[in-house]
């Protein structure tokens, strides 16, 4: 995240890491209201959706407000981590389901888009993504969510709600992916990092989960 927001000095990156670690301590050890922490993600990702919608009209402003973007990382990374932490507390199978859900949706979008893709989803951010591909991802999501209710602790009367939640989570995962593409374009880089050569960096592997995890956790708490 630091590299995508113009923070290149090692000491500044270390300081940012320490800030996030310090902010995560109360999330684990203090009895903070789970819903309140997760709700932080809602205005953040609503703003992200707006930014994606108007891009490239807002191109260049991210470099101008690089400090704001660095601080934003705290409100993107921490709620996602906290959501995964809470999902594991609720039932570790929810974490497995979320990861497979996002992975299956991404795979379905790729192959559906490759076969039938015509209409670009976000040509200025990710030319390879198509609306047809996203439709394929949503259909696969519905099928996987239906199967998953057989081994997840989802009440029978909530199965339809769970499927709808899963479909919405997948749509939000696409927003997470596109937002990272936006940051990379603004930073003028191809990869978010060098730790995973050929995979674009660690952030590229988890960008979808950054948006999906908090929304999924909120949805499950609401269903409960």
TrEMBL record:
InterPro entries documented for this protein: PC_trans
Spans traversing the lipid bilayer: 14-32, 38-55, 67-88, 94-113, 134-154, 160-182, 202-223
Involved pathway(s): Phospholipid metabolism; CDP-diacylglycerol biosynthesis; CDP-diacylglycerol from sn-glycerol 3-phosphate: step 3/3; Lipid metabolism
EC number: 2.7.7.41
A biological process term (GO) from this entry: CDP-diacylglycerol biosynthetic process
UniProt keyword Lipid biosynthesis, yes or no: yes
Highest taxon above the source species: Bacteria
GO molecular function, one term: phosphatidate cytidylyltransferase activity
Keyword Transferase attributed: yes
Keywords: Cell membrane, Lipid biosynthesis, Lipid metabolism, Membrane, Nucleotidyltransferase, Phospholipid biosynthesis, Phospholipid metabolism, Transferase, Transmembrane, Transmembrane helix
Bilayer topology annotation: Multi-pass membrane protein
Localization of this protein: Cell membrane
Top EC class of this enzyme: transferase
Family: Belongs to the CDS family.
Name of the protein in question: Phosphatidate cytidylyltransferase
Source organism of this protein record: Thiothrix lacustris
């Amino acid at each position: 995240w630091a590299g995508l927001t113009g923070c290149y000095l090692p000491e500044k990156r270390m300081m940012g890491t320490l800030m996030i670690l310090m902010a995560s301590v109360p999330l684990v050890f203090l009895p903070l209201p789970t819903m309140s922490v997760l709700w932080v993600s809602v205005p953040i990702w609503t703003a992200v959706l707006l930014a994606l919608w108007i891009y490239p009209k807002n191109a260049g402003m991210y470099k101008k407000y690089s400090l704001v973007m660095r601080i934003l990382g705290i409100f993107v990374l921490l709620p996602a981590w906290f959501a995964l932490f809470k999902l594991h507390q609720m039932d570790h199978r929810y974490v497995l389901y979320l990861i497979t859900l996002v992975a299956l949706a991404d795979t379905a979008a790729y192959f559906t888009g490759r076969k039938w893709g015509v209409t670009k989803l976000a040509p200025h951010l990710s030319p390879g993504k198509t609306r047809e591909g996203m439709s394929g991802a949503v259909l696969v999501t519905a099928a996987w969510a239906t199967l998953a209710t057989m081994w997840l602790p989802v009440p029978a009367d909530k199965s339809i709600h769970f499927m709808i939640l899963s479909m919405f989570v997948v749509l939000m995962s696409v927003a997470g992916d596109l937002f990272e593409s936006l940051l990379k374009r603004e930073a003028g880089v191809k990869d978010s990092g060098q730790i995973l050569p050929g995979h674009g960096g660690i952030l590229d592997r988890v960008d979808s989960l950054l948006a999906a995890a908090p929304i999924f956790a909120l949805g499950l708490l609401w269903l409960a």
